[in-house]
Amino acid sequence: MSTKKVAVLPGDGIGPEVMAEARKVLDKIEESTGVTFEYNQALVGGAAWDEYKEHLPESTLETCRNCDAILFGSVGGPVKEQNSEKWSGVEVNSLLGLRKAFELYANLRPAKLFPSLAFASSLREDISQKGFDLLVVRELTGGIYFGQPKGRDGEGASEKAFDTMVYSRKEVRRIAEMAFEVARKRNQKVTSIDKANVLTTMVFWRKVVEEVAAEYPDVEYEPMYVDNAAMQLTKNPQQFDVLLCGNMFGDILSDEAAALTGSLGLLPSASLAEGSFGMYEPSGGSAPDIAGTGKANPIAQILSAAMMLRYSFDMEDSAQKIEHSVNSVLEQGYRTADIYTDGDKKVTTQEMGDLIVEILDL
Ligand code: IPM
Ligand code: MG
């Protein structure tokens, strides 16, 4: 019987309550598979600040190092307190810190529009009704986020600030390979996003991606400028399967794609290292305004746990079972407050978790 060690980092706001529901689901999976999950809880974000005056304390990193995967909730505080010592820089410190510490170079962000939830989309109805199902594969540990040098110097009119966009062949190859590998298991199409008409880094990006594309003749490949991609997403999102992006373009387009689904509370994400280690987190934020009210949607956290089973624990069957349960509960019309409309069956965070566990049992 195998044991999987999970670092559980609930964080702030709705993090702890949606994490509790994901744990319920994992407990159920334990019963049916004989796999044991060993949960190692640690503090991150504002919750860690209260205890250590740091957003990502060494003790939390140590817990993560001793585990096989990280299940992350969310971090962040109320908008009006954002400049306080406790909350300022909390997301950057927590997330960029973890990404760098564990070399989580591949960020997978699915954005799927369920036809039954098309009303929640920001798209015009004739477009949203067709539904879409795409995956942003974002490079997460390189590019302009981490490139050196970055800084500020000078003063007065010549004071300046600078960041460096840089990608090595190794970095582009490994994220491109990831994109083509996952496309093989989806709809066999990769659209690589760049700005090769302007940026030298992106000319290189396109060249290396083309080399990788040639190794995957079974997968359709298309390069697209980022400005056009932002527009195409709103006009015809059905054309996309996998969107391969560098760090910054992936940040932007993954938020756009999420908004088009209209249901942030449903979207999971995975950040993967080489090998099987990964961090799994909902795409939405910590929503402190609704924390503790039972309104939070636990589905994104539950689907993040499913991604953990798929990518870190090689438990594809269990991952699919969870995804299937989530779909069934939605098809039966159960909704948390974020996606509720008249005529639906309204449920709390906990009830939603219970329903998903119940179906898992069948
Ligand atoms: C995200 C966030 C982060 C990013 C911030 C909070 C550092 O926007 O995960 O998309 O830019 O990567
Ligand atoms: Mg972002």
Write a brief caption for the model:
The protein is an alpha/beta fold and 362 residues long.
| Terminal Cα span | 23 Å
Report helical residue fraction: 40-55%
How many DSSP-defined strands?
14
Largest sheet: 10 strands, mixed
Write down the CATH class of the largest domain: Alpha Beta
Low-confidence stretches: none
Outline type: globular
Report what the structure shows.
With 362 residues, the protein is α/β, with parallel strands linked by helices. It has two domains: 1-110 and 268-362, Isopropylmalate Dehydrogenase (3-Layer(aba) Sandwich); 122-260, Isopropylmalate Dehydrogenase, CATH 3.40.718.10. The chain contains twelve helices and 14 strands. The strands form three sheets. A ten-stranded mixed β-sheet has the order 2-1-3-12-11-4-5-10-8-9, sandwiched between helices. Helix 1 runs parallel beside helix 12 (349-360), helix 6 (169-184) crosses helix 7 and helix 10 (299-311) packs antiparallel against helix 11. The chain is globular. The two termini are 23 Å apart. The mean pLDDT is 96. Magnesium ion binds at residues 251, 255. 3-isopropylmalic acid is lined by residues 91-92, 95-96, 251.
Produce the secondary structure layout.
Blueprint: E1 3-11, H1 15-33, E2 36-41, H2 46-52, H3 58-65, E3 69-74, H4 90-101, E4 106-113, H5 125-128, E5 132-139, E6 151-153, E7 160-162, H6 169-184, E8 189-194, H7 200-214, E9 220-225, H8 226-235, E10 242-245, H9 247-261, E11 268-272, E12 278-282, H10 299-311, H11 316-331, E13 334-335, E14 345-346, H12 349-360
Parallel strand pairs: 1-2, 1-3, 3-12, 5-10, 8-9, 8-10, 13-14
Antiparallel strand pairs: 4-5, 4-11, 6-7, 11-12
This protein binds 3-isopropylmalic acid and magnesium ion.
